[in-house]
Amino acid sequence: MSELLETPLHDLHVRLGAKMVPFAGYSMPVQYPLGVMKEHVHTREKAGLFDVSHMGQVKVTGDGAAVALERLIPVDIEGLGVDRQRYGMFTNDKGGIMDDLMLANRGDHIFVVVNAACKDADIAHMKAHLEPEVTVNPITDRALLALQGPASEAVLSALDPKAATMRFMDVTTLTLLGFECWVSRSGYTGEDGYEISVANENAEALALALLDHDDVEAIGLGARDSLRLEGGLCLYGHDIDTTTSPAEGALTWAIQKVRRTDGARAGGYPGADIIFAQMAQGVARKRVGLLPEGRAPMREGVALFATLEGGDPIGAITSGGFGPTVGGPVAMGMIAAEHTTLGTTVYGELRGKRLPLTVTELPFTPANFKR
Amino acid sequence: MKYTEEHEWLRVEDDGVVIGITEHATEQLGDIVFVELPEVGTTVTKDEEIAVIESVKAASDILAPIDGEIIEVNEALTGNPALANEDAIGAGWFIKIEPSDPSQMDDYMDEAGYKKFIA
After folding, report:
1. Do A322 and B34 touch (CB under 8 A)?
2. Which of A239, A260, A282 is the endpoint of a domain?
C-alpha cells in the first residue's frame, strides 16, 4: 500500500486522541474520544468542527469560466450570482454521475469543491475539456474546515462579525484571526454552518481557536457519515456513481430550468439526451429514503424485496446505519420505480431474514439552514 | 471470571454462567446500537453464532463459548444496547447459559491472561 497523505491538521487530530483510518488515500480521523454517537448529537445541538481538507479545492479562472463549466455540469452556473454557491455534478456520456460537487461564483473565478476520492480524475477532466480556454488551478496550499451546527454562527461571528450576515449558500472572504479565509455558509450535515478554506500554515491555529469555544467539539468521519445520512444527502460512490444518473439519484432538483429540455441553455453537457429522456419518461429505478421498522441497522448492500418471501430483488440499500438523532436505523436505497411511493413497505434481507422498511421522505431530520 | 479470545467474559453463578463482552471489545466496537439475543430455552453448541451486535461502525457475531441451554437473556440490553458500552461486565451482560460441560471453561484465560492478550 502506498503512503497515506496527511492533512495540515493531522498532528492536531493525533494530539486530540483521534482514531485515524485510511480514507480516499488520506489518514483521517474517524472519531475522537467522545465517540461517534456523542459527536453526532453534539453537532446537531451545538457545533462540530470537521477536517475536510482531503477534499479537492479548485479555482477555474478566465473569461467565460461559468459558461465553460456548463459544458461538463448540468446546472445553471452562468446565472449563479456573485458570491453565491450551488450544488452540481459532473456527468458522463451515459448520463451517469462522475462526481458531485459544490460551485461558487467568486466574481473573477469559479471555486469548485469536489470529493477526495474523485479529485484527481475531476481535475484531469476539467483540464482536458476546458483548457486552454480557461485555467484550472488545483488549490493545494489550503486546508478546508467545516463548522456545522446551530452554534456555528455565534462561534464564527465572534472571529468576524460578517459571518452572521451570510445566508445559506452565500460565499465570502472573511478575516479570521487575521487570516484570509474563503467561507461558504453551507456544509454536508443538514445543519446550518460554514465551510472555511484557510492557508495550510494557519489551519491548526484556526482549528484550535474554534475548538477553544465551549460549544465546539472535533468531529470525525463516522459522525459526518451519520449526519449526512440523516440529512438525506448522497455519499458519492455509494448512493450515486457513474452508473446512476441525476434522475435515478433523485437529484433533478439540482438541474435548473435553464439547463432542461426547453431552457435557454438546454443540454450541452455529457449525457444530456439521456437525462432529458429520463426526466420526461421517468426512470426504472430511483434513490429513496428507507426507514427500517425494527431496531436492526441495515447497511450498504442489503438486498431489498417487494414481498416477505420469494421474488427477485427490487434493489439494494446504498447507505445505511444508525441515526443517533432519529434514535434508530436509517437508510437510503436504489429501488425499482414502482416501489418508490412514500409509505410503501419493502423488505431487506438481513442474516437470512426479511425485515420491513418503509419508503420515507428525505431528509430524516429537518434541514436547519439559515435561508 | 474467564475470558475468551473472542473478547467474551464468563462468570459462574449458582444457577448458570453469565456471558457478556469485555470493555475492551466495546471500546473497539464503538457505540453499540443494536443487540439481538437468542431465545430462552435454546440449546447451543460451542462456537455457534448465538447473538448479533451492531455498533455505529459494523455488525459482529457473538459465538457461544460453551455448550448448554440458554436460561436467561438480558432484555434490558436489547431495549438499551448502550448498556454494553456503559457497563460491559455488569448491566450490559448478554445471556446466561446452563452449561452441559463446565470443563469447557477450563480452556479460557483468567483476567491476568486476558490483560496480557489484549496488551
Report:
1. yes
2. A282
Residue with cell 459465538: B63
- Choose the closest CB to B33 out of A31, A38, A297: A297
- pLDDT tens digit string along A291-349? 999 999 999 999 999 999 999 999 999 999 999 999 999 999 999 999 999 999 999 99
Distance CA B105, CA B109 (A): 9
Q: With beta carbons less than 8 A apart as the criterion, state whether A7 and A28 touch.
A: yes
Is a pLDDT exceeding 90 seen at residue A258?
Answer: yes
Q: What residues of chain A lie within 8 A of the CB of B52, using their CB?
A: 296, 351
Q: How far is CA B24 from CA A18, A82, B30, B36, B70, in A?
A: 17, 53, 10, 20, 25
The three cell numbers locating residue A103 = 460551485
* Closest residue, chain A, to B34 (C-alpha): A296
- The whole-angstrom separation of Cα B53 and Cα B61 is 6
B56: contact with A, CB 8 A cutoff: yes
What ipTM describes this predicted complex?
A: 0.84
Number of domains in chain A: 2
| DSSP per-residue letters across A33-99 | TT-HHHHHHHHHHSEEEEE-TTSEEEEEESTTHHHHHTTT--S--TTPPTTBEEEEEEE-TTS-EEE
Amino acid, res. A62 = G
- Counting DSSP H helices and E strands in chain B, the numbers are 4, 9
A256, A282, A308 - which closes a domain: A282
Same domain assignment for residues A270 and A298? no
A283's grid cell: 426512470
Same domain (yes/no): A253, A319: no
Q: Which residues in chain A are contacts of B78 at CB distance < 8 A?
A: 295
Mutation site for A-interface testing, chosen from B23, B26, B28, B31 by largest number of A Cβ within 10 Å: B31
Count of CB atoms situated within 10 Å of the CB of A278: 18
- The span from the CA of A218 to the CA of B40, in Å, is 43
Which residue's entry shows cell 461558487? Answer: A104
Contact criterion met (CB below 8 Å) for A163 and A177: no
